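[step 3/7] inverse_fold.run input=structure_tokens len=193
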């Protein structure tokens, strides 16, 4: 009986632009980037879960913080009168049903929606919303718990890595990197590590 292939999760945060694109607007995630090409060979022998959070123009800060993308003003018409100073449930429901400010990539991007004007019209009211789109922190894709300020909670992860013999360097605001020295005489791993 052949053993089941090892399972791996891969989560790139940067890429080169090539091939056909997918994902949130303006992120330009390529179906033929270097990670996708590498995974074509890995998939032959392993089960791979591929999580792509790369987004064109991203910077290190986007790993642990929301990234503002764009905003747009969207009007909706609702029957009746709407008070200019309140967030009308009917107007918000009309906005949601249109889908103008609803993400198709809910694990990746989010909208902050704010009403800013209500203008009486014949038989109803035009309510105007500002929809601000942002990309969620890329670190969320790898499942690290987040602290209240949005920074990853690294303490337990760093402690576990150190207990396993890793040398771990932490950088405030950026996270941690680690390395492990192989015992003398241990051959380097060449396949199925």
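[step 3/7] decode complete -> sequence:
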């Amino acid at each position: 009986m052949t053993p089941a292939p090892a399972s791996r999760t891969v989560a790139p945060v940067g890429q080169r632009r090539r091939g056909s694109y997918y994902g949130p607007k303006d992120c330009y995630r390529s179906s033929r980037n270097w990670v996708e090409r590498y995974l074509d060979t890995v998939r032959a022998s392993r089960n791979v879960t591929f999580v792509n959070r790369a987004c064109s123009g991203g910077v290190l800060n986007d790993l642990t913080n929301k990234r503002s993308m764009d905003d747009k003003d969207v009007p909706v018409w609702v029957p009746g009168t709407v008070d200019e100073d309140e967030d009308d449930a009917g107007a918000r429901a009309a906005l949601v049903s249109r889908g103008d400010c609803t993400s198709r990539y809910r694990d990746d991007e989010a909208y902050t929606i704010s009403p800013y004007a209500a203008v009486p019209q014949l038989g109803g009211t035009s309510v105007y919303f500002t929809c601000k789109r942002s990309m969620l922190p890329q670190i969320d894709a790898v499942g690290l718990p987040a602290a209240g300020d949005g920074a990853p909670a690294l303490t337990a992860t760093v402690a576990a890595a150190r207990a396993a013999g890793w040398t771990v360097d932490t950088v405030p605001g950026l996270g941690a990197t680690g390395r492990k020295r192989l015992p003398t005489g241990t051959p380097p791993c060449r396949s199925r590590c």
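[step 4/7] annotate
DSSP finds three helices and nine strands in the chain.
Residues 89-98 form the longest helix (10 residues).
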